C-alpha cells in the first residue's frame, strides 16, 4: 500500500510544427494509503494522461509525484511498484489465461510453484479459475477484464491504477464489475486510483472523487458532498443524472424580501421564487443583477394538490424509469427536468403545477460559473 501525492503537476504536448497544448495545469491532490480515489471528467480532461504520468508512461513537465513518500519523477515504470489495468485489457492473444496472469511473475523469474500459487489465488479471487487454459479470443469482455485485473493482482503492487477499465463492457456486466472492484478493494486494502468518464461509476466506486475538466481539478470530495455542494456549474452539470437544472434569474428586492424572476420579460416572468434566511443574506450583494439558480431534478416538484405553486409547467416528455420517472417540462421560456416517484399518469402538452424546493437551491455566478451560495468550499482540498 502507498500514499500518492501530486504537487502542481503540469504537462504540455506539442504537435509537429504546432504550438504547445496544455494537457494538465497545476494538478494537486492526495490519494491516501488504502483509499479508492476516482478521477472523473469528460473526454480530453487529462485524466488518462494523469494516470500514465503516475505510472511513469508519460514524462512530467513541471511538479512532482510521490508514491509512498518517495518522489518518482524520472524513475522507470518498472521501479515504481505500480500495476495498471488498461481500457483495452492488453492481453497477449497467443497465451492462455494462465500465462497472461503469470506474465509479470515470469518477468520477475519467480519459481513455478510460487507462480502457480499466485495465479490460482488471483483467479479464484476474480472467479476465473475455470478459464485458465483458454485463450483471450474465446472470452467475453467481462471475462477479459477480470483476467487483466488478476494479472495486476499477482504483482502485489503498492498502487493499482485503472484506466477506464469497464468502458468496453455491456451495461449489466459493467454494474457487476463495479461491485467486484469495490469488493476487491476492501479485500486487498490497497491504494487504487480509478479513471472514468462515467459519473455514475465515480459516484458508486469512489471514497473520494477528483472532478477534472480541461486539464484542471474542479473539485475534490466525497461523492455525496460533490453532488449536494458542487463548487461550480460545470461540476453541478456533470455530476448527476439527469444533471442539475439551471435558470438565469434576476435578483429583485421587494420591501424586506428578495425574489428571483426568470424569463425574458421582467414584467411577465416565467416564475418567481422567494428566498429567506442565509439565502437572503448571501444575495444582498447581487441585488438588481443576475445569478444562476440551480435545482436538482428531485427538487422540482409536481403536486396537483399543492395550495401554492411557483409556476405552471407544460409536459414535454415523460421518461418512466421504473421506480421513478423523469418529467421534462417547459416553464415559460425555460426548460427543466423533474424527478418524481413512480409512474405518474401525465400526457404530453398537459399543464401541471410546479414547485421549487428553494431550501435546496444553489446559486452560481453567471460569469465565472462558481458557486456563490451556499458559500463555496475549497474546490481542490
Write a short abstract of this structure.
By secondary structure, this protein is of the alpha+beta class.
Number of E strands: 21
Fourth-tier CATH superfamily name of the largest domain: P-loop containing nucleotide triphosphate hydrolases
The appropriate CATH architecture of the largest domain is 3-Layer(aba) Sandwich
Please identify the oligomeric state: single chain
Q: What would you report as the Rg, rounded to the nearest angstrom? A: 25 Å
Shape label? elongated
Reading side by side through the largest sheet, how are the strands ordered? 6-7-8-3-9-10
Order of helices and strands: EEEHEEEHHHEHEHEEHHEEEHEEEEEEEE
Largest sheet: 6 strands, mixed
Separation of the first and last Cα atoms: 22 Å
CATH topology group of the largest domain: Rossmann fold
Number of domains: 2
Percent of residues in helices: 10-25%
Low-confidence stretches: 377-381
How much strand?
A: 25-35%
Report the CATH C-level class of the largest domain.
Answer: Alpha Beta
Task: Give the overall pLDDT as a whole number.
Answer: 88
Q: Briefly note the structural class of the backbone.
A: alpha+beta
Total helical segments: 9
Can you offer a commentary on this structure?
The chain is of the alpha+beta class and about 375 residues long. It has 2 domains: about 5-240, 3-Layer(aba) Sandwich (Rossmann fold); about 245-375, OB fold (Dihydrolipoamide Acetyltransferase, E2P) (Beta Barrel), CATH 2.40.50.140. The chain contains 9 helices and 21 strands. The strands form 4 sheets. Strands 6-7-8-3-9-10 form a 6-stranded mixed beta sheet, with helices on both faces. Strands 13-12-11-14-20-21 form a 6-stranded antiparallel beta sheet. The protein has a 5-stranded antiparallel beta sheet with strand order 15-19-16-17-18, with no helix packed on it. Strand 7 (about 160-165), helix 5 (about 170-190) and strand 8 form a beta-alpha-beta unit. The relative contact order is 0.12.
